[in-house]
Amino acid sequence: MPRKNPSPDKREDALSRERIIEAAITLLDTSGESGLTFRALADALATGAGAIYWHIAHKNDLLTAVCDAVIARTLQAAGGAGAATPHATVRAIALAVFEAIDAHPWVGSALTQAPGQLPHVRLLEHIGQQVRQLGVPEATQWVVACTLVNYMVGVGGQNAANAQFARQEGIERDGFLASMANTWLALDADEFGFTRSMATCLRTHDDRADFLTGIDLILRGIATED
Amino acid sequence: MPRKNPSPDKREDALSRERIIEAAITLLDTSGESGLTFRALADALATGAGAIYWHIAHKNDLLTAVCDAVIARTLQAAGGAGAATPHATVRAIALAVFEAIDAHPWVGSALTQAPGQLPHVRLLEHIGQQVRQLGVPEATQWVVACTLVNYMVGVGGQNAANAQFARQEGIERDGFLASMANTWLALDADEFGFTRSMATCLRTHDDRADFLTGIDLILRGIATED
DNA sequence: ACCTGAACACCGTTCAAGT
DNA sequence: ACCTGAACACCGTTCAAGT
């Protein structure tokens, strides 16, 4: 009777792309972006470092695959909801992606570094279908869908960077924002008047709400188009 | 009479933060993101690798500083224009940043990896001032300015990633897009209907124009707000 | 105060050799 | 066909030692 514990003791199944991707996900979630190493991954899989190269071309390939696995699941889960209007569906998709990046910050940076690859294509497809539903004329569907996707990925990347910075600094989000707000307040009053006046907003803002407001802004811009 | 050639022969001035930053910029422009190495940088400055650490805390510090130098110059040059309307000024700033990233792709990824740092603050300030001019109510200035900045940085990061990918693949932009378009056309017809129909757009689109259309969408969303 | 350069503790990737 | 693990060619960073 084979043991069911897949811990780093000994391998029971053969290696496979899927097994590697799953191990990479848990490794990334556990030790962060810098924790994903071919050596550490090989350890977790109870194999040699070079073995991975039989299934994965190079580290970027792995990163994209791992990102795609999360995005695919996220979109699948979000698609099931079936919101009332295209507008609401776009919002639901955007929020789901935001939550996924919040839970796995490394997805944000992977997404930023692999434009046009499969994870991106999935986003474009899901968003694009709703853009069609919105009645956007065919000639502008491309640019509208791209704007939404670019915005989503852009914010996601920023949040990922924030999370990674806070992690390696060992700081909580609140402390991180508070110290940044202080830095802003110490800026030159003439040159950085606007930024200084936004220091409180920085400290008290809600990432999620702001992100969705941005989505709404773009959607409203679309609706006004003629 | 001292020689005026600052080539990698021998150093004449003392090292300084500015000299290091300038050398890093030319190195990045010449050899790309992966070309910026403390060893290569030390060579270019005719010094030892460790000397740089007297002036720069760590590589991320250098990257942010180098990014900020470009952004500061870009915004200064763009600010001089003095466009007629706030809308036009936002467009001008956005375009200037786009061009800067196009000329120095590494600025795009540096920008993505340093949220809240000085380069970001500069963008926020310049955009925010125009958001005020647009008459956006105080309560929503924060989220509006952030949306614009996030979008700009997001698109910039994507373009940087594209440029870097094309560089290391040794491919031109056109060939890169053409092969990606073919990949899209080979996707499953049911699952990726929208994406397939956009393959031609991918191949023929204009990055700059699409980017500005996105800015316009957001600005129009703001105008419609009430 | 500032610089030098060897040394340390890592990386991704390759590849002969095994099964 | 698939795996092993040592070896290669790098990294960022540190630090005793120099000036």
Automatic annotation (TrEMBL), chains A, B:
Residues 37-56 bind DNA. The keyword Transmembrane helix does not apply. Pfam families: TetR_N. It comes from the Bacteria. InterPro entries: Homeodomain-like_sf, HTH-type_TetR-like_transc_reg, HTH_TetR, Tet_transcr_reg_TetR, Tet_transcr_reg_TetR-rel_C_sf. PANTHER family: HTH-TYPE TRANSCRIPTIONAL REGULATOR RUTR (PTHR30055), TRANSCRIPTIONAL REGULATORY PROTEIN (PTHR30055:SF151). TetR is the repressor of the tetracycline resistance element; its N-terminal region forms a helix-turn-helix structure and binds DNA. Binding of tetracycline to TetR reduces the repressor affinity for the tetracycline resistance gene (tetA) promoter operator sites. This is AcrR family transcriptional regulator. It comes from Silvimonas terrae.
